[in-house]
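Module 6 notes. Inverse folding takes a fixed backbone as the condition and produces residue identities as the prediction. Think of it as a translation problem where the source language is geometry and the target language is the twenty amino acids. Below is one complete input and output pair. Work through it position by position during the lab.
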């Protein structure tokens, strides 16, 4: 199983590991593409703070992120799973996984990123600020920029089931095609309420991240190894989640799993 996660906008600072080594990251086929994005980001943030803030969409309160980006090559690193924070990662709780589940996480989780393309949770990276929706002056929109290198690199590691939990900005960086799409499942979180005796459902926005984090954690801890979207739906059901799978409407499309919740927290 391969699980694709979005990053978080906020990131933990203060890495104490050695300086960035792009060659040490997962998916080494992305090294040249990473180098190009890193070069432009560092140059942009080193040259003109106001322009950098405008390009990166940073508020006055996030001015310090520009200087942080300018120093990325010298900054200390920490595992990506510690750098990314926020609702999904709090619910996933990488630091509190059992030893066996933590090893699975190192093998099976990939975090998408506007700067790195995608990294494993154990990859040493510095804290940075670069949303997947940014358009860099020279390289252009990052969603479009990453499509070709990701299309070459990701199928090489996407064996078996792919669980795609990315948000829209990062979903544009890579789309599964062909038979790979048929073994890929996306997740939609729906809240169910009974109103006047009738069930009403609505799409959960912010708190869908927490549900997705809990789903991944339960899969890692359970030892379940689903090999297909159908088996994934069964495994999640056995773990106490209410799941309604929808197969692809046609070739080249992915499965959709609706996870229905009654409480959002």
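Target side of the pair, the amino acids:
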């Amino acid at each position: 199983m391969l699980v694709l996660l979005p990053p978080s906008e906020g990131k933990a600072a203060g890495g104490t590991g050695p300086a960035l080594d792009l060659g040490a990251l997962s998916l080494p086929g992305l090294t040249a593409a990473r180098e190009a994005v890193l070069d432009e980001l560092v140059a942009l943030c080193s040259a003109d703070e106001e322009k950098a803030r405008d390009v990166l969409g940073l508020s006055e309160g996030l001015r310090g992120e520009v200087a942080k980006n300018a120093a990325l090559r010298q900054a200390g690193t920490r595992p990506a799973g510690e750098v990314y924070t926020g609702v999904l990662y709090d619910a996933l709780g990488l630091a509190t996984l059992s030893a066996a589940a933590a090893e699975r996480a190192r093998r099976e989780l990939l975090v998408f990123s506007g700067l790195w393309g995608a990294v494993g949770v154990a990859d040493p990276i510095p804290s940075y600020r670069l949303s997947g929706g940014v358009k860099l002056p020279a390289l252009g929109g990052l969603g479009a920029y990453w499509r070709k290198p990701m299309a070459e690199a990701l199928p090489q590691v996407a064996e078996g089931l792919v669980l795609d939990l990315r948000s829209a900005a990062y979903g544009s960086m890579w789309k599964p095609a062909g038979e790979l799409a048929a073994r890929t499942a996306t997740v939609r979180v729906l809240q169910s309420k009974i109103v006047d005796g009738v069930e009403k459902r609505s799409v959960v926005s912010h708190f869908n991240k927490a549900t997705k984090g809990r789903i991944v954690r339960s899969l890692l801890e359970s030892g379940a190894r689903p090999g297909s979207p159908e088996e994934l739906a069964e495994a999640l059901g056995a773990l106490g989640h209410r799941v309604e799978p929808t197969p692809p409407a046609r070739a080249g499309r992915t499965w959709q799993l609706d996870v229905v919740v009654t409480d959002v927290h």
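Reference fact for the lab report: Residues 2-261 form one domain.
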